[in-house]
TrEMBL record:
Superkingdom, natural source: Bacteria
Tetracycline repressor TetR C-terminal domain location: 92-153
Keyword Zinc-finger: no
Name the UniProt record assigns to this protein: AcrR family transcriptional regulator
Keywords annotated in UniProt: Transcription, Transcription regulation
Entry-linked InterPro entries: Homeodomain-like_sf (IPR009057), Repressor_TetR_C (IPR004111), Tet_transcr_reg_TetR-rel_C_sf (IPR036271)
Pfam families in the cross-refs: TetR_C_1 (PF02909)
BP GO terms, sorted: negative regulation of DNA-templated transcription
Length: 200
């Protein structure tokens, strides 16, 4: 269950606002990364006792949900792409967003994001595909976003592909092509998106 499925009710008149949790959690994740994030550290950044966090959220997953949606909603490049409604531009902006906020790749892979910023993103992407005449826009949107998420997750490894040697004895065809490699992870993503979105 995500934060957006059942947000906790306010139990006190003076309470920590979800917007403050979201904003601070996103900044903290940008600084320490996904693996080092904790509610205790978030409470320190908010200058509150950990118990104050539990008055508004159920646990770490809720904090991650809030941070994920805040980061997307605050990304001006994403918002500009959404306003223009062109699917490939939206997906490219999403790729850059995930590279900038590398922790978001791990969070978005846990479960479908359902915060308002992600719903706006999904609506714009599906509508853009539908209005451009692509068949089966929802399946294409799922496939394209999964492609972007996977490309962002493997970005560092893909960047080292050029320098990683390939054995000519074990993989001669691969080695011959690899010797002339002249593309970047961005080039690969653009080509894959073009193939995926422009067929049928």
């Amino acid at each position: 269950m995500s934060y957006w499925d059942a947000a906790k009710a306010v139990r006190r008149s003076r309470v920590l606002e979800p917007e403050a949790i979201a904003r601070t959690a996103a900044r903290l994740l940008d600084q320490v990364g996904y693996d080092e994030f904790s509610l205790r550290l978030l409470a320190d950044w908010l200058d509150v006792a950990p118990a104050s966090l539990y008055s508004r959220i159920r646990g770490t997953s809720d904090a991650l949900d809030l941070a994920l949606d805040h980061a997307l909603g605050a990304d001006h490049s994403i918002q500009q792409a959404i306003s223009r409604g062109e699917a490939v531009e939206i997906l490219r902006a999403f790729f850059e967003h995930l590279l900038e906020h590398s922790w978001a790749v791990h969070v978005v892979a846990m479960r479908p994001p359902r915060g308002p910023a992600y719903l706006e993103f999904s609506e714009s992407l599906v509508r853009g595909l539908q209005e451009s005449g692509r068949s089966d826009p929802l399946s294409r949107a799922y496939a394209a976003t999964n492609l972007v998420i996977g490309s962002a997750l493997t970005y560092q490894a893909a960047g080292r592909e050029v320098d990683a040697p390939v054995s000519a004895d074990r993989a001669p065809h691969y080695e011959a092509l690899h010797a002339d490699i002249a593309f970047t992870p961005h080039d690969v993503l653009d080509k894959a998106l073009g193939e995926l979105l422009n067929v049928g």
